[in-house]
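Quick one, T. Sequence first:
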Amino acid sequence: MKVFVTGGAGYVGSFGIKALKGRGAEIVVFDNLENGHRETTSRLGVELIEGDIRNREDINAALDPSFDAVMHYAAYASVGTSTKNPPRYFRNNVVGTLNLLDAMVEHKVKKFIFSSSSEVYGEAERLPLTEDMPLRSDNPYGLSKLMVEQILPWYDSFAQIKYVALRYFNAAGAALDGSMGEDHDPETHLIPNIILSALGRKEFRLTCATDLDTPDGTPIRDYTHVLDLAEAHVRALDYLSKGGKSDAFNVGKGRGYSVLEVIKEVERVSGQKIAREEGEKRPGEPSAKWASGEKIKKVLGWEAKYGIKEIVESAYKWHKDH
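Structure tokens:
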């Protein structure tokens, strides 16, 4: 199988590539290197084509009918940043994906794995989140993912592009041996920032709400180890290759961890006390959100192997060694 991987030089995409290579796939990465790293593709031994999904000519020059599938990781993915610059998110995440889908139509590529988000659920009506719940979004990032999910059935209808939308729940962690991990500049994610603080490499004081309607007052999220997430993408592609119908799945551990629980786990692994202070709830973010994994287990045979312990231990090893 030959797979066109957008955003494959980035964090989640690189783990997806490694999982695909383990199944014998031929891979071409398409990345503008804004958030990715050239050395990642070199280390993984895959071809890199530099280009931007916002540029239709770039995509059409790179994609051709020899590809069996597209795995789409190229997106901006920060709730907070999206509220400060919504047009940037809509141009990249929505228009860019439309450009990619149009190129797939032109070159008759029929399988599409889409990195969606738990943000398509908005403020949770009940927990755990299930795929049949109403979809809406309270921020531009989530709305950009929701818009694409609403568009995809039409491409299935008129161009027979079969898709799987995987709704992420906070990708985290690193390779268990510490050989691959998360490397953003600037780093905005909770776990690496806490770890970098514990290692004394970053001046970081965690500020989070402590008066939310949760057991310890801090936000609760469903964290998914990046190795589990990569496996979900491979399972989704296998599913489509066997004639599976277009669908959407939650990709989560099935339970939530509070910010305070994450802090305590980093303190356990690092032996360092993490500085923190009370703050306010961030705009557009719910107090608690975690997923049911029953549908993806039943249909794709996927279930998360790793929890917060493995996430923090592997991420700490990565940052400590790099």
